[in-house]
UniProtKB/TrEMBL annotation, chain B:
GO terms for cellular component: nucleus. GO terms for biological process: platelet aggregation. One of its GO terms (molecular function) is fibroblast growth factor binding. This is Fibroblast growth factor (acidic) intracellular binding protein a. It comes from the Eukaryota. It comes from Sphaeramia orbicularis (orbiculate cardinalfish).
Amino acid sequence: MPGKLKAKIVAGRHLPVMDRASDLTDAFVEVKFGNTTFKTDVYHKSLNPQWNSEWFKFEVDDEDLQDEPLQITVLDHDTYSANDAIGKVYIDIDPLLCSEAASVISGWFPIYDTIHGIRGEINVLVKVELFNDLNRFRQSSCGVKFFCTTSIPRCYRAAMVHGFVEELVVNEDPEYQWIDRIRTPRASNEARQRLISLMSGELQRKIGLKVLEMGGNAVVGYLQCFDLEGESGLVVRAIGTACTLDKLSSGSAPSTNTHIHPNTAPASNACNSPSKDGKESPLAHGCRSTHNSPVHSACSSQRLSQNFSVSVPTLIFTGMGSGGSAGKDAGPLKTLLRQQTQTALEQREFPFFTLTSFPPGFLVHAGGVVSARSVKLLDRIHNPALGNTRSYKLLDWNSVTADEPETRDAWWEEIRQEIKSHAKALGCHAVVGYSESTSICEEVCILSASGTAAILNPRYMREGCLDIGSTDHRFEEPSPPSCGFCHIPYDELNMPFPAQLTYCYHCRRQKVPDVLFTTIDLPPEAAVTGKGCLIQARLCRLKKKAQGEVNATAISNLLPFMEYELHTQLMNKLKLRSMNALFGLRIQISVGENMLLGLASATGVYLTALPASGGIQIAGKTPGDLSNEHHILTIQKRINDTIAKNKELYQINPPELTEEAVGSPIPEPRQRSRLFRSHSESSDELSELDLSHGKKDAFVLEIDDTDAVEDIHSLLTDTPPPTGFYSCNTEIMPGIYNWTSGVQMFTSVRVFRLSNANLTNQGLNKIFTDLCENLLKSFYFKLRSMIPCCLCHLNVTVAVPEEELIQVAVTAVAMTFDKDQTQEKPAEKVIQKGSGEIEEQLQFPLELCADSSSTSTQQSSKISGTVSLLTPAAKLCHNQLVMVRSAGVPETSNVSSRAASVDYGSFADRCSTWLELLRLKAHTIRRGSVKTSRRTQSLAHSVSSLERGSPLPEGRSRSLRSNRSFGGSSVTVVKMTPLSFLPGTRIIKYLGIINMFFIRETTSLREEGGVSGFLHSFIAEVFAMVRAHVAALGGNAVVSYSMKECVLMENPNKNQAQCLINVSGDAVICVRETDQEPVSSSTNIGQSCSSGTDGGAT
Amino acid sequence: MAVELDVFVGNTTIMDEEVYQLWLDGYTVNDAVKVRMEGGVLEECETSADVLLSDTMDQYRTFQMCERLLHSPAKLANQLLFQIPPHRQAILIERYYAFDDAFVREVLGKKLSKGTKKDLDDISAKTTVTLKSCRRQFDNFKRVLKVVEELKGPLVENIRQHFLLSDKLARDYAAIVFFANNRFETGKRKLQYLTFQDFAFCAGQLINNWTVGAVGEPVDHQRSSRVYMDVDLDKEFLQELKELKILITDKDLLDQHKSLVCTALRGKTKAFNEMEANFKNLSRGLVNIAAKLTNTKDVRDFFIDLVEKFIEPCRSDRWTAADMRLYLTHYTNSAHILDTFKHQVVWDRYMGVIKSCIFKMYHD
């Protein structure tokens, strides 16, 4: 049922001149929600009107509140002719529907027009009064919190992770309706914006209902996408992970990492005790990095009733070597564990999780990347009834075209099934870091899904968390958090593919693969050597222009080869950097009319637990040829040089020290002997897809064919970032822990026109590679004043908007860090390595000193230095965990190890009481909602009338108020970042999800500075609107920001262009880590000023 | 093959001060890239010319988009489009409103009209300031003039508040506005040796002493009757200046004045003889200037008259700056001792300004 939405129009400023004669404007405002419209008075002859309207009240269903945006239109009154529209503001009411998020929306919003861009600003106040709804058949899902963040939000605790939720809604695209032929571009754009806003609202509501059904209260890792299918319609789909979240009291808010991990007690033992099994390790065979080729070709092409569809054989990337030996399995415990978790997960249709980082102990093992793609032909919507429907209200698709959403659903269902079966084949019962995407060109659509097969701890998935405790404890393996996730999840005797296994270099108890690929973030507790780096594989493939099924078949034939080559490139580049694992792997394949683009981005890391990477060996096919031999030698030398250089650059020192320190006997073949002995493989020989070849003993990169030469060259052309710069596409850079507060989020777009009609694949590859490299270089240059800094969450998307055009769009954040502290690497290492109690850790390095008396003095001095460094940090640990983190100590394993002492019984008790509390709280909040809004009303009044002196009722409103900009004095600084946090700050409140869709069009492209000028101002406008909405909610930052869509269409000959942008993120209030209370608005500005200095170039 | 589109947008707007200066100076993108390359940025940052070009274009675009806001700097602080830290906003504004002394010297005292604007290319050629930069500077002058013309209150303060400029720059603008409004002639060959700063100083003196605003808030509270402003000279004061004529028309007064001054000066300077010989001429010159200031035409020639009637004769007699100081001090003070001379207040208000102007304008 019901809710009352109230809106008040306060004032406008910087309005455009609408009356040429007077150089002024007679502005008034229309406020519309659903079918109800109110108007303000006309404020004559002013560019800064003060309407100060009454409260406009809308009495509506909460279902509508979720679906509809509040629409505010600013118009210029004209006595004789029609009133001219100045622009519009859409306000999403959703954040007000959740008692824990914002309670009032108040602030200056840019007035946006799809043709002219931002035209002045308007000050608006919006509030909602919700009444309690006990109807169990309700269609609304108010109160379910949504987060774009792909981890448990910082001031919450996951009581339970329910699992995958998905939904999609379909509609006809207004741009393709018959009416579009007669209406203005502005009307058409606005219809589209409004429709998509409605659809996202509906989608969110439906997902919310599913979450409530599952018993959850939040969606984490919410990922919403649009498929602009052109004539066949518009699809809005979303996936996410349903959770039950408990809000942490503000005192404990920062310590999400204190999450108790009950199974680390034996970890230290595991680490310190040498493993006897290690001796049977298969290292003697030498390292072989055979690419694991398509294991599961999905079912052959099939025709659906209506739609042509090709399923593409997919690869499972685990990066396993071959020839693993049958080591001793962990035994019946493992099996038991599996059985248990399976029952927990098997009930779910899709045990998928969109999270990329997890509460400690959640992720038990990561198996490898699983992905699936399928090529579909989009069908026109055969629905004459639609053409006449002028209403923007969503059509009930169930009655009109019953099969439409079902068709799309079926497509995704198919893909998800495939992913699920891939995961099973890897011995995993779940998929984490899961995401879905599409690429559409004309009528062909590639659907892609990928994730990381994993075994999860069932603790988080069981009802009520009540049975946590002894049972769990018994079944869980004692794998230390710093390496446990690398241990293979599958049965060694029955491996899904040939793989090279060794005993874990960290705990020496379990098998690990030689290389690990994942789509998730590096677990914070993982032990890492050196720093990570961005690794990209880029590929272009020409394709003949074709139509319909022929085209789809051609594309699906190309896909496996592209995936294969991308994988090979990734593997080679990984080895070139002496690393052994990839995180955040994202492979995008974009389809154009005459080419396919493939881009794989990931962050390479040296995981201490995994074996060192071998080098790359080059060999010619004809050994007799002298000149050839020479050529090979030079290339080999260059490669070796690069590897050596990279090792230094990323500080990858083979962990010999570690091994000696641990005191475990190293399995007979020394690591050194394995270096440079491994093999890469040649690129695209078909036979490589045959698994039997994986058994070959030696594999060399043969360079007798030109492709191979090209490949090597492309390997070596990747220039490392300049000194002081690092880059990665994960949340944070492995190996850097001491972030300072300088933050600069940016979006960059480049479009490249290929003028040469007769391009070869190689030529195209080079152009594409150069494009990406140059883009990175220009970032390094632009941000040079921030050095030392790291580009994090570098999210690159490619598209082929037209024939001969390549578009690359990047959103990333540059963050500064303190260089000095990073050099205290030995300290980090010791901490990472030891995972026992703090006391133990303190003793540990000392013992190490004694044991390794033979080691050089330099070494021992280093180690004793470590001890002194460690002590203060360890002491702090007891009281202030935040301090430890900000002091530059890496995600401390000692934090989780503290957990060992926790009594499970009490833990479970606490869980249940928390749940109780939550229920109680929810109830009181609902009942108290009217009261709350009244309080905020007085607050709002005081804001609007600038009565600064008025006493404030309580802290909550103070926090709201302090972050709001007063009058026209100053603008709240809003920081934006694609990460889930801002360094140096603490998120104290999530205010709701930001999900905005904008269209901008111009018919005076040249006058706006060409297509670059057009897009530049549009992106700036989008940023401005996001910031304004966040500020109006009372926030001062956006986290997990992403630009999910940027579709640019241009026609320079007609002087026209159109662009669509979709962005999303979480609005938050954050405070400096040391502050308890939210910073007041003035200090806030000062603070962000200083960081702005860091941000700006000089 | 070509880059068709290339944009980079930061949440905090990134601006390179060096590029900003090049943009303000009216360099084209390509010229700016050249200048930057010569500055050695390529080697320093291990980058390529392409990167530099892309960066320069991006920044130019940003500046162009900001320019609209810079036209009314107060908007820059509460606009939402660009997130720019306040201190950086201040730099942007200050630099945008900064001008070349060479350029301003050319247009100082000219009517800020379309006609002058057409001459900008000549000025550009003469001063080697790019035409683009000339246009920006000229438009800035015009914009400030237009806003300030309508406002009551102290000129410098008005400029400072409306354009958020530093005190120094606001004073310079006040000078420019004041000169443009009163159309002081500064372009004559005889005035060529004077710098903009010389004139700016004189303008400051005139604004502070000779305008309506200079007397302070009107005592009567009927503000509407008398516009409280300091863009125009105080008409009543100019009228009163006519009374000073008595100093030269009354023979006795003139002789008495001369003897008082000569007595005071005797033995104190080498140029005494020349001073004595020229006293009447010089005094006539200064008093005549005062008497004629009611005519707009003569107001325009104020500086040229000062040079012709006073500075040049003294210079040909090789007075030093110290001589000048000595002479003018005694010349002013001696008038107070004349018993028949009743216009002491007007005399002081007049001579105070004349003294400091001549000190500033008299280069050794």
